Amino acid sequence: MEAHIGTGEVVKVYRNLHNKTGVGYSVKHAKRNRVISKRGGVQCVKLENVTFWVSEKTRQRTIREGKKYVHAYAVGTMKSGGDYENAEQSQTPREKEIETGFLNTLNWHRVSYNPFKGPDFTVNGRPLAGADRAQLCATGMWVFNPRFKNQ
Prior knowledge:
The protein has one domain (10-148). A hairpin with a 2-residue loop joins β7 and β8. The protein has helices at residues 56-65, 93-105, and strands spanning 10-15, 25-29, 34-35, 42-54, 72-83, 108-111, 122-123, 126-137, 140-148. By secondary structure, it is an alpha+beta fold. Strands 1, 2, 3, 4, 5, 6, 7, 8 and 9 form a 9-stranded antiparallel sheet that branches. The chain is built from 2 helices and 9 strands.
């Protein structure tokens, strides 16, 4: 990522759906609302004090037009992020399997988001409000100590 982005800054992160490998994430500075990651995004981002935000208006446009518009973010304080340099560095299916097993054993929970199924990020179908930590990596988004809506 660019030199002026550091840990401790509040950022908005979304999956870069136009990345050829599908594992890149784009990072926006929360206050300036400008993309600050290099072209192609980053391979792994770790956040603290995370909330989840979805633009309902743009979600409805996505559903109506059947196109992919950026409208859903994980928002939090940057803990770390690694550059995504080229597609050849993406994880193999076996590496993804190992990462998934590792995160599961440490009580991390996989997050899902599908604009056609509803307006929320979810863990096992339960709508998320936030989490202590999030890791966005090749195997998807994971959260530690999730907080659910209506708790």
